[in-house]
Amino acid sequence: MLESKIEKRLKREVEKFGGISLKFTSPGMSGVPDRLVLLPGGRLYFVELKAPGKTLRPLQLKRKRQLENLGFKVYVIDSYKRIDEFLRDVMR
């Protein structure tokens, strides 16, 4: 399965809950997560999308740790199942 299919599904599922899944790029800072997921109530999550079985590159892992050290939740999603798990976690 392609990463792009997972990304499209995430966007669609987030919108069902009244949220927005924004493509995130940060000029001058490589390795940031692919998506900012904004949910009702002022909730923000970073999401890195991967093709099934793929792992974070070292720089992506560094950025994930930086964001988590600032108190942000960073999710790595590589399947439709992981999208469901993400939504169950953030919609509690």
Notes on the structure:
This protein has about 90 residues and is of the alpha+beta class. Helix content is about 40%, strand content about 20%. The chain has three helices and four strands, in the order αβββαβα. It has a four-stranded mixed β-sheet. The relative contact order is 0.21. The model has no long low-confidence stretch (mean pLDDT about 95).
Give the neighbour order of strands across the main sheet: 1-2-3-4
User: Average pLDDT value?
Assistant: 96
**Element string (H = helix, E = strand):** HEEEHEH
Distance between the termini: 28 Å
The overall strand count is 4
Helix content: 40-55%
Low-pLDDT segments: none
CATH class: Alpha Beta
- What is the CATH architecture assignment? 3-Layer(aba) Sandwich
CATH topology: Trna Endonuclease, Chain: A, domain 1
Major sheet: 4 strands, mixed
Beta-strand percentage? 15-25%
Q: How many domains would you count in the coordinates?
A: 1
Q: Which overall shape is indicated by the principal axes computed on the Cα atoms?
A: globular
Radius of gyration: 12 Å
In DSSP terms, counting alpha (H) and pi (I) runs of 4 or more, how many helices? 3
Q: Given the helix and strand composition, which structural class is it?
A: alpha+beta
Present the secondary structure layout.
Layout: H1 3-16, E1 20-23, E2 35-39, E3 43-49, H2 58-69, E4 74-77, H3 80-90
Parallel strand pairs: 3-4
Antiparallel strand pairs: 1-2, 2-3
